[in-house]
């Protein structure tokens, strides 16, 4: 069995991240001081469907393919709002959402639902070779929670910075690759 090497790449910095707002699908990335190194010709590139992921993936490969399973968590009516706005207007709902992975006070997708979506995608992803997948902080947190088998509440303790990478390999089971 030939191994799968999958590197998840967090999209580049956005204005929403810089200003403490929750993301919207149409958010683009800020100008990059140093563009990420492009993927080699043998590396296949996937991208979440949101603009910020597609723009980041374009720096890595002209042939990036959109993968819907890598989409960010749907934050419903909270998209684009700042955390300060939510703390002022909906403190109990925000607290519930942060503490309970099954919570959806915004009317979108819960973190538990995101974890399930990511788990299904990882279970089906078995194409050998080198892969880069540009996605979002919450998706990368969901992958880590699934891979390590830790409580979903642990995702609140994981920081995923813009352009950070998480390397995985698969040869019968998914493994985290530290380098």
From TrEMBL:
<protein>
    <submittedName>
        <fullName>Histidine phosphatase family protein</fullName>
        <ecNumber>3.1.3.-</ecNumber>
    </submittedName>
</protein>
<keyword id="KW-0378">Hydrolase</keyword>
<dbReference type="InterPro" id="IPR013078">
    <property type="entry name" value="His_Pase_superF_clade-1"/>
</dbReference>
<dbReference type="Pfam" id="PF00300">
    <property type="entry name" value="His_Phos_1"/>
</dbReference>
<dbReference type="InterPro" id="IPR029033">
    <property type="entry name" value="His_PPase_superfam"/>
</dbReference>
<dbReference type="GO" id="GO:0016787">
    <property type="term" value="F:hydrolase activity"/>
</dbReference>
């Amino acid at each position: 069995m030939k191994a799968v090497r999958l590197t998840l790449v967090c999209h580049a910095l956005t204005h929403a991240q810089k200003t403490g707002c929750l993301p919207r699908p149409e958010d683009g990335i800020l100008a990059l001081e140093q563009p990420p190194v492009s993927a080699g010709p043998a590396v296949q590139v996937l991208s979440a469907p949101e603009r910020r992921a597609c723009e980041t993936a374009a720096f890595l490969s002209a042939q990036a393919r959109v993968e819907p399973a890598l989409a960010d968590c749907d934050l419903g009516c909270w998209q684009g709002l700042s955390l300060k706005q939510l703390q002022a207007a909906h403190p109990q709902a925000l607290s519930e959402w942060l503490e309970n992975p099954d919570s959806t006070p915004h009317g979108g997708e819960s973190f538990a639902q995101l974890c399930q979506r990511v788990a299904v995608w990882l279970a089906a992803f078995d194409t050998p070779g080198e892969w880069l997948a540009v996605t979002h902080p919450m998706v990368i947190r969901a992958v880590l929670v699934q891979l390590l088998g830790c409580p979903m509440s642990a995702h609140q303790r994981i920081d995923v910075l813009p352009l950070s990478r998480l390397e995985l390999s698969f040869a019968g089971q998914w493994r985290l690759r530290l380098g």
